[in-house]
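A further point concerns the way the authors explain their paired sequence and structure data. The central task, working out the structure tokens from the amino acid sequence alone, is never made concrete. I therefore recommend that a typical entry be quoted early in the introduction. An entry of this sort, consisting of the sequence and the corresponding backbone structure tokens, reads as follows:
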Amino acid sequence: MTQAFDAAAQQKLLEERAAAALMMARQLGADACEVGASVDQGIGVSVREGDVESVELSRDQGVAVTVYVGQRKGSASSTDAGDESIKTVVEKALAIARYTGEDPASGLADADLMATRFPDLDVHHPWALGTDEAIELAVSCEAAGLAAEGIRSSDGASLSSGEGVRVYANSHGFMGSQCGSRHSLSCMLIAEDGNGMQRDYDYTSARKPGELRDPAEVGRSAAERTLRRLGAQTPQTGRFPVLFDPSQASGLIGHLMSAIAGGAIYRDASFLCGRLGESLFPDWFTLGEKPMLVGGLASSPFDGDGVQTRDNVFIDKGVLASYMLSAYSARRLGMQTTANAGGARNLRIGAELQSRDELLAQMDRGILVTELMGQGVNSVTGDYSRGAAGFWVENGRIQHPVEEFTIAGNLASMFAGLAGVGSDIDTRGSIHTGSWLIDEMTVAGS
């Protein structure tokens, strides 16, 4: 079993060390300072064909210090959060600051923006999980998958469970801390027929261990997903509607958020530069975040600058309503922070949802994409080209699996051509979305 993790004691210790770092920075000549400190502990096991492949008990900690001397900035970090290490980190950060150029946008977020509300967001649910129990759960998950007729072998099952504490403090007098947990279980299987081997997987993830899916269910689902890929063909080349499975549709939202991130905007490195207030999606589509969502996988009352988080709407009835800004990127753009230092939290879609069958009927003839490969996304131009696998659809019905093809388009036209969002919402991550039906993309196959 992992060493007992006293979250309250760790939180107090990190807060004391953060306060000590702030005091030290002030004494050594910093005009302002911010400190991030964290400690995480977890267990991870992996099994294959019923045998244990690895058992990992981890405990990681770290501290990062950023100091400001006028408008010069210096940052340093260490994986040792002891008193002597903190002193060394502060000294290094100050040394760096004295050699950097002045940046008019540098500095802490405004003091009046600091978080003052710290509700219980129900994000810390530790799991007193012993090594033997963790192995047993992974083995049972894999065994359920291997029991399915047609499954040849396993590529492994893995279970991980962890919890941690993070603290952020700055010289405005702000001190924020949060405990959290994350647990997951996955299984990957292999099937074979006359055309060769296929591989697929399934997983479950949650803050609370009791909300994980049953291990046997995960294994059986992994088997089902693997078996349905047998007999895959290469689709014909052409332009067709493409239905992105929820697991892949979340990636499209990720590309959108990267494109509206303040860092990309002020560097003029996004295809959405200068498009604030313009229509990007159909008018029935809205996208926002809920960082104070109770139990959310990305919930937090404060962002990486200590700013109070709040609900934000990024796409309002199809229109790009807001960029995603930290204090620094907001200053670079002459705007106000959206409390998104560290990214968006708990993204949710507002739209009339359709069932998977309704979306398939609407597309009539095209491709359902369940896997994407490669990194062919250009955030500057919006050009999109990815290797893919999935299923061919004819007359609104899935006909057979397909693989070894590429889908291509441009994110701007794909967003504008969003024809429907599914009710089959994937809730395993911080982005909750169903399937996305894009009206037309280029498919390069046979």
Summary: The first strand starts at residue 32 and ends at 48.
